[in-house]
Amino acid sequence: MRMKYVLSEVLVGLWRNVTMTIAMIITMAVSLTMLGASGLMYRQVDDMKDLYYKNIQVSIFLTQEVSEQQRTDLDAKLKSDPLVKEVLYVNKDEAYKRFKEMYQDAPDLVNAVKPDQLPESFRIKLNNPEQYKDIYDQYKDTEGVDEIVDQSRLLDKIFDILTAIQNIALAAAIVMAIAALLLVANTIQVAAYSKRREVAVMKLVGASNWFIQAPFVLEAVVAGLIGALLGLVALILAKYLLFDGSLEALQGLLSPVSWGDILFVFPFMAVVGGLVSAVTAWVTLRFYLRV
Amino acid sequence: MTKTYPKASRPSLDNVSVSIEKGEFVFFIGPSGSGKSTIIKMLLHEVSPNKGRVVVNGKDVTSMRSWKRPHFRRSIGCVFQDFRLLPNRTAYENVAFALEVIGKTKAVARRVVPEVLELVGLGGKEHRYPHELSGGEQQRVAVARAFVNRPLILLADEPTGNLDPDTSIEIMRLLDRINRTGTTVVMVTHDSNIVNQMRRRVIEIESGRIVRDQARGVYG
Prior knowledge:
GO molecular function (chain B): ATP binding; ATP hydrolysis activity; transmembrane transporter activity
Number of strands of chain A: 4
Distance between the termini of chain B: 25 Å
Protein name (chain B): Cell division ATP-binding protein FtsE
Largest sheet of chain B: 6 strands, mixed
Number of domains of chain B: 2
Largest sheet of chain A: 4 strands, antiparallel
Helix content of chain B: 25-40%
Oligomer: heterodimer
CATH superfamily of the largest domain in chain B: P-loop containing nucleotide triphosphate hydrolases
Strand order of the largest sheet of chain B: 4-5-6-1-7-8
Structural class of chain B: alpha/beta
Shape of chain B: globular
Order of helices and strands of chain A: HHEHEHHEHEHHHH
Structural class of chain A: alpha+beta
Subcellular location (chain B): Cell membrane
Domain ABC transporter (chain B): 2-219
Function (chain B): Part of the ABC transporter FtsEX involved in cellular division. Has ATPase activity.
C-alpha cells in the first residue's frame, strides 16, 4: 500500500505542474543527449585512432639524382632500425602506377606526368606511429633523401577537430545540466509547497523521513529517466539522419556509429540523469522541508 | 532548562523545571510570549534547550538524533488551534492518513478509524470534508487524528482558541475522556473559563519563568 501511495503521489506530482515537468524533462534530455554524444565521440575517436594508426605510413621520398649506393645504404639502415616495423621500396614505375590509380579521374594530369618525374620512395610503417619525429630527425639529412611525409600529421589535425567537437558537446552538456539541475530544484520546491499541509501532518504524526521525501525524489528521478529516454531517441535519430543520411559521404573517413555503441552509452546517460535528479531533489528537500 | 532563541533579548524559558507524571492533565497558562509554546515545541523535539534536558517517557529528547524523531513523534498526539486538517480529504481520510503514513495498512485503518471517530462523537459524519464541518467538529477530527495511534501523551496548543464557549466545553469533555484512558494531556490555553471549570493542575508561566504550579488550580 505504501508503495502504491508513493507511486500515485509521484504521478500526481508530475502532472500537477506539468509545464514545469516538461521543461525539466526537455533540458534533461538535451543535456543527456550532449553527454551521450560526447561519450559516443570518445569511443569513435578511439576506434578511428586504432584503425588509422595501424595503417599509417611514413613516406621517405628520394631525390631525383639519388645514387644506387645511397639507396641501398638507406634501405639497410631502415631495415635495421628498431623503430621501423616494415619497409616497402617504391620505385619510379610503381610510383607511376599508384599515381595513375589515384588520379584516374583526371587523365590530363596523368598524361602530363612521365614515370621518370615521380620520385622513388620508401614507405615505412612504424612500431609506434607517435615516434614519427625521431624518424624525421634521423633521416632528414641523410644523403639522397628529399622529403619525409608523415600521414599521421594530417590525421592529428582531424583528431584535433573531433576532440574539439567532443569538448564542445561536453561543455554544452554541462551547461544544460546546470539548467536542468536548477529546474529540478525549482520543481521540487513548488511540489513541496503545494503539498506543505500533507508534509506538515506527516511530520507531526511521525512519518519517516524517507516516506516524506520519496515521492518528491522519485518525481525528479522519473523526470530524469524520461529525459534519458528522450536523449536515446535523439541519438538514434541523429545516427539515422546524420551519419546514415547527410554525412554518409564521410563514411570512409569516420568509422560508423554502431547501434551497440548507442546502447552502450544509454545506461550511462540514464544513471547520470537519475542520479543528478535524485541528489538535487534530496538536497533541495533538506533545505526546504528540513526533514 | 533554558531556551534562548537566536536574536532574542531574553530567554524564552529561563531555568524552568517541570515534572509531569503519566496520566496527568496539565494546563500551561500565561500571557502571549511567555514561553508556553516553546514547551510544546521542546516536547515535540522541534527545538532543543540551550541548557538542561527534556525527558519524555524516560527518553532524553535533548540528545536524540534527528533521524529518530519520526518514531518518537508516534508516541505523541498533537492538536492545534487551527486544526491543521487536510481540506481535500474527508474526516475518515484525514484520520486514516495519519495511520497510513506511519505504515499501517488500510485494513487497520478500516478497523480503527470508525472506532475513534465514534469516540470523538463524529459517528455518521465520516465522509464529510472539513469545510462541511463546524469548527468544533473539525477539532474533533483533529483530536481523533491525534489519538488514533493511542499516544502516551496528547499535546494541545490552544485547542479551543477558535471555538465558542459551548463548543470549547465539549472539546474539553472529549480531552477529559481521553485523559481517563490513561493518556497524559498537556494543554496550553488562554481560556480562563475552561481552566476554572476543569480544576486540574495549572502551571502559570510569565516571562519564561514558572510563577505558579498548583494542583486543581484556577486561572487566577
